[in-house]
Amino acid sequence: MSIDSLRRSARATVSGLPGGFWWLWLSTLVNRTGAFVLTFLSLYLTQELGHSAWYAGLVLALHGLGGVAGSPLGGTLADKWGRRPTMVTMHLVTASCAAALALVTSAWGVAAVVLVMGVSMQAVRPSIQATIADMVPEHDRRRAFALNYWALNLGFAVAALGGGAALFLGYRTLFLVEAVATVLCALIVFLRLPESRPEARRDPAGEVVEKDRVSVLDVLRDAPFRTLVLLNLLVCLVFTAPWVGLPLTVAEAGLEPSAYGLVIATNGVVIVAFQLLVNKVTEKRSPAMLLTVSSLLFAVGTGTTVLAGTPLLFAATVVVWTIGEMVHVPTNAAATAKLAPEHARGRYQGVMGMSWALSGFLAPILAGWVVDGPGTDTLWVACGIIGCVAAVGYATRLRKVLDDGPAPAPLEVRTENGSDGPGSATAATAATAVTTVTAAGKAESVATTVDTVESAALAPGTAESLPPVTAESLAPVTTESLPSAAPAAPAAPPRKSESGAVSA
Predict the structure, then answer these.
(1) CB under 8 Å, gap of 24 or more: what pairs does 199-202 form?
(2) Which of 14, 123, 152, 255 is the least buried, fewest Cβ under 10 Å from its Cβ?
(3) Confidence of residue 214 (pLDDT cuts 50, 70, 90)
């Protein structure tokens, strides 16, 4: 592939998206570039404050537990309060927690701050996902979600490298840097990102129409979406397991801890280097098929870890499930947006985010229990089986609902009082037929005919009384009988729109 073709492919990947999306993309990049707390929290608790590894694991579990509550909370606020104010508020709460961790040293104080931070960090994500769904047309959403996920991983990679180099400044300094970066992220959202929340329908009294009232419980009653959430939870459990079990498996193989660092770094390198290419390859594919394939990649990547024994083989397994991650995350987000009503996108994304947060809480506990009991081989075999179960679920339960396009809007003609008139389709068809026969600029010469057709169609019991529209009845209105028109103005030359498409 030539340099020019690569350049054209990259330009096609990032072109055509609204300007507001790129401000949101930039805020994600800035936010994740300063994400030092979660990266170094366990080291800070054990090495700096002298707490046990058990306590460090408990604190990280509390962060995940906070996310379980924060995700539906953030989704509800995004729909009721707005995407923009929810993002700004939760970013500022996260910044305050990061700064507090630089000052608080007591065990209870650290646990409380990390719990609140888990709530705020997860609460902001439904607003981000809903904003992308609001701004970007459906055919471009998967690409937009992939680009935002790429920014997240690019920022995380920079944070990991920069944080390691800056450790000589101290953990507290890194936490303050995260606070500053998160405030900057909130400023970008506040100053540059427009509010995109669609309004629910309201009755004359200003109250939301009853059928448009959506609670978190209503979202959970949506059977296809509930299936999507449960299958995503299975995939998330498989995805989270390597972050707990892989370092233990590498140690069992007799490898140095530095080997694990190189192996797990493969995940970030592959995402940063190939996310845009994977998106280009998959952008026209069936969502259900992509979710099925990604689940199988998770199953194969984690399941074959039981056969690995060298750094190269461990890295190969990471590459396989990382490709599954790159396919799954944007496709799942786009599928959530497809199933959600416009005015409830925040709640739907919030419930979906809850499955990610719940897996972050459950997977370390379950993986630790399996490793301490049956052993690491059982963990990887179980991951392979769970991934295959999820793949079967996507292929059999969600193929129709995810791959079918939106239903066409019904044809309607309204009477003066706003109700549907009898024979509305007939009236619309007849009026279209009359207008089509007229010459350019001369539709007014058959206004009487159109009025007659519409009046007949909208009168009671008109289906039988509507006169047929035939070539003979329209004969007086022909191009020969019309007065000669003035010479047509020359056609305007093609021009390029802002997106680069040529239009007349």
Answers:
(1) 199/343, 200/343, 201/343
(2) 14
(3) confident
Q: CA–CA separation, 98 vs 114, rounded Å?
A: 9
| DSSP type of residue 418 | S
Beta bridge partners of 495: 503
Amino acid of residue 472: E
Structure token pair of residue 416: 């003066």
- CA 30, chain centre distance (Å): 19
Say what percent of the chain tops pLDDT 70: 76
- Say if CB 227 and CB 398 are below 8 A apart: yes
- What pLDDT sits at residue 4? 72
User: Using an 8 Å Cβ cutoff, are 106 and 310 in contact?
Assistant: no
Give the C-alpha separation, 102 to 176, whole Å: 7
Q: pLDDT digit string (tens) for 365-400?
A: 888 889 889 999 999 999 999 999 999 999 999 999
Those residues with Cβ within 8 angstroms of residue 167's Cβ, 6 or more apart along the chain or in another chain: 40, 174
- How far does CA 459 lie from the centroid of its chain? 48
Other CB atoms within a 10 A radius of the CB of residue 194 amount to 13
CB contact set of 73 (below 8 Å; sequence gap of 6+): 119, 123, 350
Helix, strand, coil in percent for the chain, rounding step 5: 75, 0, 25
User: What values do phi and psi take at 274, rounded to 5?
Assistant: -125, 0
Report pLDDT digits (tens) over 119-134.
Answer: 999 999 999 999 999 9
* pLDDT tops 90 at residue 118: yes
Residues 201-217 have a mean pLDDT of 68
Helix 345-372 to helix 376-397 angle (10° resolution) is 150
- Is there a contact between 291 and 282 (Cβ–Cβ < 8 Å)? no
Per-residue pLDDT band for 261 (boundaries 50, 70, 90) equals: confident
Question: How far is Cα of residue 315 from the mean position of the Cα atoms in its chain?
Answer: 28
Distances (CA, A) of 55 to 44, 230, 368: 12, 30, 15
d(CA 345, CA 354): 14
Please state the pTM of the whole predicted model.
Answer: 0.76
Query: Per DSSP, what are the bridge partners of residue 420?
Result: 414
**Token digits of residue 215:** 């609670």
Contacts of 297 (CB under 8 A, 6+ apart): 320, 321, 323, 324, 327
Distance CA 266, CA 329 (A): 18
Confidence of residue 71 (pLDDT cuts 50, 70, 90): very high
Supply φ then ψ for residue 411, to 5 degrees.
Answer: -80, 125
Q: How many Å apart are CA 240 and CA 235, to the nearest integer?
A: 9
C-alpha 264, offset from chain centre: 25
The 8-class DSSP code of residue 107 comes to H
How many CA atoms lie less than 13 Å away from 410 in the CB half-sphere?
A: 6
Q: Which amino acid is present at 200?
A: A
State the pLDDT at residue 481.
Answer: 43
Q: How far apart, in whole angstroms, are the C-alpha atoms of residue 161 and residue 163? A: 5
Structure tokens at 201: 């329908």
